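Supplementary material to the annual report.
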Amino acid sequence: MNLLLLSDEHFLSPTTASISGYQFQHLKQVHKAEIGDTVKVGRINGNIGEGKIIEIHADHALMDLHLSITPPQPIPITLILALPRPKMLKRILQTIATIGVKHVFLINSYRVEKSYWHSPLLHEDKIRENLILGLEQGIDTILPVITTKKRFKPFVEDELPAISENSRVIVGHPKASVPCPQNLTEPVTLIIGPEGGFIPYEIDLLCANGAESFNLGPRILRVEQAIPALVYRLLADQALSIG
Amino acid sequence: MNLLLLSDEHFLSPTTASISGYQFQHLKQVHKAEIGDTVKVGRINGNIGEGKIIEIHADHALMDLHLSITPPQPIPITLILALPRPKMLKRILQTIATIGVKHVFLINSYRVEKSYWHSPLLHEDKIRENLILGLEQGIDTILPVITTKKRFKPFVEDELPAISENSRVIVGHPKASVPCPQNLTEPVTLIIGPEGGFIPYEIDLLCANGAESFNLGPRILRVEQAIPALVYRLLADQALSIG
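Predicted assembly:
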């Protein structure tokens, strides 16, 4: 945790917050925090700054906050992801938040098993919990917006064109002959398939609706590896706030 | 598992292998394999090809093998990594193998806790097990070589210059003002610090021994995210066999 990310319910006043739960445990056990210490703090969808510990109790601490730094610029990528296996979803949500992607559609695909849609990890509060963990790692405050779409064809035909308007739409596909683009500065809609990949019908439908397919070399990465690999390969320095 | 990776002990003859353990379970449960089916198979440090199932027993199967395809070209990166927390090490070893890095040094650093060096995951057979899982994901056969170095200063001063000879030596450092290089075709020695980063003394010593520091933007990635992000950002298409 590189940032303690607070939501509205933590705030007792605009400059005072009460920290409990895993964040309080982290303060005590990792930071060995004592009264007077300061830690990096952010407010969900707000600023970043410092929190000074003013009281420590058995199960919570009080902090004085000074939040004056704006969070890093979002990554200009909308991510469309075939719903991952529940086991992977948690880490993938954290990765998305850490990297700075703010708009994500979890979609159906032939190789997405129906049972994945019933995972408790898709409950709103579980999604939020993992996004917050990811933001705390990446030192950001802006919660990504995760939308689920359970029908592939209507999504691609009826919604993708509007979602991806004014962006470069690309889909990873091991059999594509075009190499992954680089140094992009314009907005990107990045589509990543399920384990085993999209089936040819799905690739064809995506390409008929504005997507270009590309390859990332012979190695098949896991989704949680492919997301950082693709985001950092596709974008120019300025889009990643590098340098 | 995108490849069934076999070691010498699986081979009954140069073209016949016996599959048991988790690989047999995967064949039965995921591939629902039957006699006559073929699956993608590789031999550790050898070729890739097809295995045809010729017998299925209670706890093993026999395969006829035809291995004629050479594995993908290694990634021209030597990775020097501050020893990660045991909890992360397993996934990091898998990631390294999946991505195609073949030479890794796990080193000490001020922020590496002493207890990490006693993790059972550092036992040779556990390292090998996780590397094989990573290679099976990435469809590769060449086992990475993992070396541990428990003393930072002697490693950097006495060994790094020889290890990194004829390569570009770079170290990720959030405070560096130089952006992460791109499109490299020459060999790279990539140095990644622990959670919390290298301390200034360590960065200085690395830079005094040939390393350049660079930044990857404001977001702090986990090591298992930083490895794919950096490898795919640093290298040119040809070094990644893309296109």
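Chain B has two domains: 4-69, 77-240.
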